[in-house]
Write a structure and sequence with these properties.
The structure is a single chain. Strand 16 and strand 17 form a beta hairpin. The longest helix is centred in the C-terminal third of the chain and has 24 residues. The strands form six sheets. The protein has a five-stranded antiparallel sheet with strand order 8-7-9-15-10. A four-stranded antiparallel sheet has the order 1-2-6-3. The protein has a two-stranded antiparallel ribbon with strand order 4-5. The protein is built from eleven helices and 17 strands. It has one domain: Chorismate synthase AroC (Chorismate synthase, AroC fold, 4-Layer Sandwich). The two termini are 28 Å apart. The protein is of the alpha+beta class. The protein binds ligand EPS.
Length: 373
């Protein structure tokens, strides 16, 4: 079973991860992992912390001559800003952050909470997700994402191909496929920065190449959409997840919402629309998986909201530390990583196998079987 654990504080020495269950025989290309780490650091609206950090993965175990051995992969991303012990505490919890609930629950300082709640921890998630992408690519499965909304600026309902989305990551400052919309997004981010405010947005993540039958209908915790939703909702600042039509399924009639099924010899069974977002009954149905997430604006505001001083109990403003104005592009990279891990885990559950060669054999056999149905 593919699984992982992470550890590390935002201003500690490093972030650590252990990825277990990766089969042997996968070439672990550090440049590909570092490329995703660099994408996570970039994006219009990021703050000053990213000028200090230069995130690079260090792989300490589970590989031999650059190839996975089947043993747990231990990795580290070092923090350059690592002065945790001399950092001041915060006394006025930020509305929207883990500060208040975390310090009450653990009976600690806000500092102790924010260090782990910080989205800095997502650097190691991105490294783990990038390794999962290397496995998925070997299985001809690709994951991509794009930003479809920042504040009130959003791309309209036009059909966007997977290939367009893959290109946006190299050409756009906000991982957005439309340069006209990106300009509007940038203007809104500039305005928010001037107002000491922050902005969130909406991201779409897609998975291409997944055969039908990944996940299962038989138990709630085996449903692929349930697993993806959990992984995406657990990312910092995510407040909504929707597949395909998402919230709009409640608006339309069944005859519009459901995707008619067709068959021909070349394509086999397929659907003539994809309102389901590629998942029916908790299983992939052979179409692209399409999932959207909504990210709230970052809760550290330069122009802070009312809060309470936890020492004096007096009303005051929330504490402010440096912050990003908008981290939506970074969030899209993190979401890709979350999806890549879940899809890789579910795919391995279907194929079994301890080596890449065995997995490929099993996947090939399953795809051949699908052609006979
Ligand atoms: C982040 C690093 C952090 C924050 C941000 C994410 O750096 P610092 O706290 O030193 O400025 O900029 O954290 C949050 C958004 C959060 O909610 O805590 C990073 O590397 O992504």
């Amino acid at each position: 079973m593919l699984r992982y654990l992470t550890s590390g504080e935002s201003h500690g020495t490093c972030l650590m991860g252990i990825l277990e269950g990766m089969p042997s025989g996968v070439e672990i290309k550090e440049d590909r992992i570092n490329a995703d780490l660099a994408r996570r650091q970039a994006g219009y609206g990021r703050g000053d912390r990213q000028k200090i950090e230069n995130d690079k993965v260090e792989i300490h175990s589970g590989i031999l001559k650059g190839v996975s051995t089947g043993a747990p992969i231990g990795l580290i991303v070092k923090n350059k800003d690592n002065t945790i012990d001399s950092m001041p505490d915060l006394v006025c919890p930020r509305p929207g952050h883990a500060d208040l609930a975390g310090s009450l629950k653990y009976d600690t300082s806000i500092r102790a909470v924010l260090e782990r709640a910080s989205a800095r921890s997502t650097a190691v998630h991105v490294a783990i997700g990038a390794i999962c992408k290397l496995l998925l690519v070997e299985c001809r499965v690709r994951v991509a994402s794009h930003v479809i909304q920042v504040g009130a600026a959003s791309i309209s309902g036009e059909m966007i191909t997977f290939e367009q989305i893959e290109k946006a990551k190299d050409t756009s400052k906000l991982n957005c496929v439309s340069s006209a919309v990106e300009e509007k997004m940038i203007a809104l981010i500039d305005e928010a920065r001037e107002n000491g405010d922050t902005l969130g947005g909406v991201i779409e993540i897609r998975v291409k190449g997944l055969p039908a039958g990944i996940g299962s209908h038989v138990q709630p915790d085996r449903k692929l959409d349930g697993q993806l939703a959990q992984a995406l909702m657990s990312m910092q600042a995510i407040k909504a997840v929707g597949f395909g039509l998402g919230w709009n399924v409640g608006y339309h009639a069944g005859s519009y919402v459901h995707d008619p099924i067709a068959y021909n010899k070349e394509a086999g069974y397929h659907h003539i629309s994809n309102n389901a977002g590629g998942i029916e009954g908790g299983m992939s149905n052979g179409e692209e998986v399409v999932v959207r997430i909504a990210k709230k604006p970052i809760s550290t505001l330069k122009n802070p909201l009312p809060s309470v001083d936890m020492k004096t109990k007096k009303s005051t403003e929330a504490s402010y530390e440096r912050s990003d104005t908008c981290a939506i592009a970074a969030c899209s990279v993190i979401a890709e990583a979350a999806v890549a891990f879940e899809v890789a885990r579910a795919l391995l559950e279907k194929t079994g196998g301890d080596s890449l060669a065995e997995i490929k054999r099993n996947l090939h056999a399953y795809k051949e079987y699908l052609k006979t149905r």
